[in-house]
Amino acid sequence: MEWIHPMPKIELHAHLNGSIRDTTLLELARVLGEKGVIVFSDVEDVIQKNDRSLDEVFKLFDLIHMITTDHQTVTRITREVVEDFALENVVYLELRTTPKRNDSIGMSKRSYMEAVIKGLRSISEVDVEFLPASNSQNVHNSCDGVGRKKIYVRLLLSIDRRETTESAMETVKLALEMRNVGVVGIDLSGNPLVGEWSTFLPALQFAKDNDLYITLHCGEVPNPKEIQAMLDFKPHRVGHACFFKDQDWEKLKSFRIPVEICLSSNIITKSISSIDIHHFADLYKAKHPLIICTDDFGVFSTTLSNEYSLAVRSFGLGKRETFALAKSGIDATFAEDEVKQQLGLIFDSASPEYV
Ligand code: 5GP
C-alpha cells in the first residue's frame, strides 16, 4: 500500500499535545529530569507503554502538559507537528489545542495561542497557509506531491471538560478574536468521565451563534443522555461516536453530522473491542460523511497514512474508493470556500494516480 503515503490527505481530528514526537517528549523529559523537576525513568516507562486505557491516556496527558506547557515548547511542537503532517502529504490540517493558563510562568490562554501562531510562522521546511483567504496573499495550488510540500492549517480551540462555564466562555471569546489568524472553531474534549454537558452548553451556544464551527467528542463512554443532548445541539461534526445506540445513529444520520473516525485510538483505548466491529463499516456502507483521523499520533504511535492502511486492510477498500473517501473530507472541513476549491484542485490533479 505504498500509494497511501503520496495520496493527498485531510486531517480533521488532531490534538496538538497528543501529536508530539516521542523523541521530542523524551528529550524534554530528560532535561526536566536533570533539573530534578521529574523522575525521568518514571516518565520514560509511561511514555513508552503502548497499551493504555482511556483513563491512562488522560494521566499521560497531565504528564505531557507538565513537560510541554511553556511558550517556547508550544511553539516548537506546533512547528514539528505541522511539518510531520505535511511530510506525509496531509494537504489540509485542522489542528486543535486547549489554550492553557499558567500564572507561574506568565502564561495566559492568549499567550499560549500566540505561541502556537509563532510556531506556524516559524515553519520553513514546508509551505504553510494558515491565514484566512481574505487575509492572505498567497493562496495558490502548489502541492504537487513531488516538489515542496504545502499544507493549509486551520485551528480549533479546545475546551477541556474540567473547565468551568466561565473558563469555556473565555476560550470561545479568544477564538472569536483570533479568527484573523486561522481559528475556525471550537472543540469539546478532555476526560469524558468528567464534567457535565450543561456546563459547556452556554459557551458552545455562544460560539455557534457567532458563526464558529463546533466539533464535539461524543459517545466516548456510554452516556446516553449526553449523547442525545449533544446531537440535539447539532454540532458541525462529532469525534469517535463509539457508544452510540440505534436512536443515536438515527439522529446522527438524519442530521448528516460528519464523524471523525480515529481507528487506532479507539482500539488502543478499548473503546471498541475489535476493529471488525468498528462503526466505520456501517457508516461507510450507509454513505454517511466520515473522515479518517489520527487523534493523537504521538500518544498512539501512528500516522494518518497508517490509519488509512488500517481502514483499507480491515474493511477491504480499494485504491479508488480510498482516494474518494479522502477527497470527501473536503466537505467536512471548516475552511472557507476558497480553500475548499483549492483542495478540490489538489485532489483533482492527483486523481489520475488513483482511478
Ligand atoms: P492539547 O489540547 O493539550 O493540545 O492536547 C491534549 C488534550 O486533548 C488532552 O489533555 C485532552 O483534553 C484532549 N484529548 C486528546 N485526545 C483525546 C481523546 O481521545 N479524547 C478526549 N476526550 N480528549 C482528548
TrEMBL record:
According to UniProt, the reaction catalysed is: N(6)-methyl-AMP + H2O + H(+) = IMP + methylamine
Mention any Pfam family matching this sequence: A_deaminase
- Gene Ontology molecular-function annotations: adenosine deaminase activity; metal ion binding
Task: List GO BP terms, alphabetically.
Answer: adenosine catabolic process; inosine biosynthetic process; nucleotide metabolic process
The Adenosine deaminase domain sits at 8-343
Record Gene3D superfamilies: Metal-dependent hydrolases
By its UniProt entry, which InterPro entries does this protein fall under? A_deaminase_dom, Ado/ade_deaminase, Metal_Hydrolase
Q: Which domain of life is it from?
A: Eukaryota
Task: Indicate whether Ion transport appears among the record's keywords.
Answer: no
Keywords for this entry?
Answer: Hydrolase, Metal-binding, Nucleotide metabolism, Zinc
Identify the cofactor(s).
Zn(2+)
Family of this protein: Belongs to the metallo-dependent hydrolases superfamily. Adenosine and AMP deaminases family.
List, alphabetically, the PANTHER family matched: ADENOSINE DEAMINASE, ADENOSINE DEAMINASE-LIKE PROTEIN
According to UniProt, the name of this protein is (rape) hypothetical protein
Species of provenance: Brassica napus
